[in-house]
Specification:
By secondary structure, this protein is an alpha+beta fold. Helix content is 14%, strand content 29%. It has a 6-stranded antiparallel barrel. Strands 3-4-5-8-7-6 form a 6-stranded antiparallel barrel. Strands 11-12 form a two-stranded antiparallel sheet. The longest helix has 14 residues.
Length: 285
């Protein structure tokens, strides 16, 4: 059984909320002592690479079908969490979600601004492990290109943006309080990259999950109160102007001793470099 708390909405709960008018619930229980996640409103122009993943068929129209976040890393390529594309979240395989879209350049989910672009193809990391949440990323190919100004650079291994203590920002439309209070407009919070030792201490392969430094990093504040939460999965953690993480999992939201865990984007960079190298014929190198 999955021990960690992933940060996507779950389709059956979302559909029930849409049908009954009850506020959307979170994917897995968040402890009652969860604190306010410390976010503030931002306009999407301040973070144009932040997009919402949407399916009104699966999640209803209350929040334009938003269920996860994503990041624009190429004009027709969006990076998100692999678990967002799982049947635990969607209820079916992503290939069977006929209206899977990316909502881009829109601050308020229910406004008419920005674009809603169909997803043409989904490729989940072949190394994704749903048991540990290692390599938690997927690549979405869009049917239409976004402007180059929406694209953010990914930080490769060794980039100073990964250094512990570096200031970072995470953005999304997720839970604001840990109690099912979902945002309609884009919000963000500031936090700091934490050391691997601090993250391993927080998640030592116990009941709340295991931190695996190769494919994960974590970020938060010593006193808690600043964190991603349910509905933010796949959204960007940005430091020094580069993408360093994707919202992945955590225990509760905003807890002092349980920082948020993110997919380490340098692993995505490494995998894409390997893939590109494999595609070059030997006599062309």
């Amino acid at each position: 059984m999955r021990r960690f708390f992933v940060r996507a909405l779950v389709r059956p709960l979302a559909l029930a909320a849409a049908a009954t008018g009850i506020p959307l619930l979170y994917a897995t229980p968040v402890a009652a002592d969860s604190v306010v996640i410390g976010s503030f409103p931002i306009d999407v122009s301040a973070s144009p690479w932040t997009v919402a993943l949407s399916s009104r068929d699966r999640f209803g129209g209350t929040r334009a079908g938003q269920f996860c976040g994503g990041v624009v890393i190429g004009r027709t390529t969006v990076l998100t969490a692999a678990h967002c594309m799982g049947e635990d979240v969607l209820g079916v395989s992503p290939q069977r979600v006929g209206d899977l879209k990316v909502i881009a350049n829109r601050t308020d989910l229910l406004s008419r601004g920005g674009q809603e672009i169909p997803v043409r193809a989904v490729r989940v990391s072949p190394d994704y492990d749903s048991r540990t949440n290692a390599e938690d990323y997927a690549l979405l190919t869009l049917a239409e290109p976004l402007p180059q100004s929406s694209v953010i650079e990914m930080a490769a291994a060794g980039d100073p943006a990964y250094r512990p203590g570096t200031g970072a920002m995470v953005s999304g439309w997720g839970d604001l309080t840990g109690g099912g209070d979902y945002a309609r407009s884009l919000r963000a919070t500031r936090l700091h990259v934490l050391s691997d030792a601090r993250c391993e201490k927080a998640y030592p392969n116990g009941a709340e999950g295991a931190y695996l430094a190769r494919s994960m990093l974590c970020a938060g504040e010593p006193a808690g109160g600043h964190d991603a939460c349910q509905g933010d999965s796949g959204g960007p953690l940005v430091a020094q102007g580069k993408l360093i993480g994707l919202v992945s999992w955590g225990s509760g939201c905003g807890r002092a001793q349980n920082p948020g865990v993110y997919t380490r984007v340098s692993e995505v960079v490494r995998a894409r470099e390997r893939s590109a190298g494999a595609a070059v014929p030997r006599d062309a190198r």
